[in-house]
């Protein structure tokens, strides 16, 4: 789907707050609510907008530690390893990568003791992985959801 400037303006507003009413979007871009509704529907149908979600503060719900985990996957074990990683509650993202690590995870845990348990009991000793490195995230300076629009 080819996006025009109006579509991009709508997407920017929805990325800031997906709950913005169509009437407010329409007012901000000087367009009718019906037109905004039609354009959003078209972008949903085309797969440009994949869904809407609530952004939950992990610390506020008891997950005070986040970490990135680099994993080296043994050749031929990729699908099985990825499937098992998806089943682990603290795993929030799984990225297939090039370079030193085959997979990089973002994980969350209640505290460093639970992170240690997650790493040693659930991930590092899992069959199919030959190496791992855990990097605790001390803070996030900048984060943007989705591509630049």
From TrEMBL:
Transmembrane segments: none
Keyword Phosphoprotein: no
GO molecular function term, any single one: DNA binding
Domain HTH asnC-type: start-end pairs: 3-64
InterPro entries: ArsR-like_HTH, AsnC-type_HTH_dom, Dimeric_a/b-barrel, Tscrpt_reg_AsnC-like, Tscrpt_reg_AsnC/Lrp_C, WH-like_DNA-bd_sf, WH_DNA-bd_sf
UniProt xrefs under PROSITE patterns: HTH_ASNC_2
Keywords of the record: DNA-binding, Transcription, Transcription regulation
Superkingdom of the source species: Archaea
Pfam families: AsnC_trans_reg, HTH_24
Protein name: Lrp/AsnC family transcriptional regulator
């Amino acid at each position: 789907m080819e996006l025009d400037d109006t579509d991009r303006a709508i997407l920017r507003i929805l990325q800031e707050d997906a709950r913005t009413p169509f009437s407010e979007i329409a007012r901000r871009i000087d367009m009718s609510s019906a037109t905004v509704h039609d354009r959003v529907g078209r972008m949903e149908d085309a797969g440009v907008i994949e869904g809407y979600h609530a952004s939950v503060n992990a610390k506020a719900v008891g997950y005070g530690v986040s970490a990135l985990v680099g994993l080296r996957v043994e050749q031929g074990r990729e699908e099985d390893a990825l499937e098992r990683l998806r089943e682990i509650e603290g795993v929030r993202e799984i990225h297939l990568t090039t370079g030193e690590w085959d997979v990089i995870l973002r994980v969350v845990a209640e505290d460093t003791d639970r992170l240690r348990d997650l790493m040693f009991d659930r991930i590092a000793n899992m069959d199919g992985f030959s190496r791992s490195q855990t990097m605790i995230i001390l803070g996030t300076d900048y984060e943007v959801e989705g591509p630049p629009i």
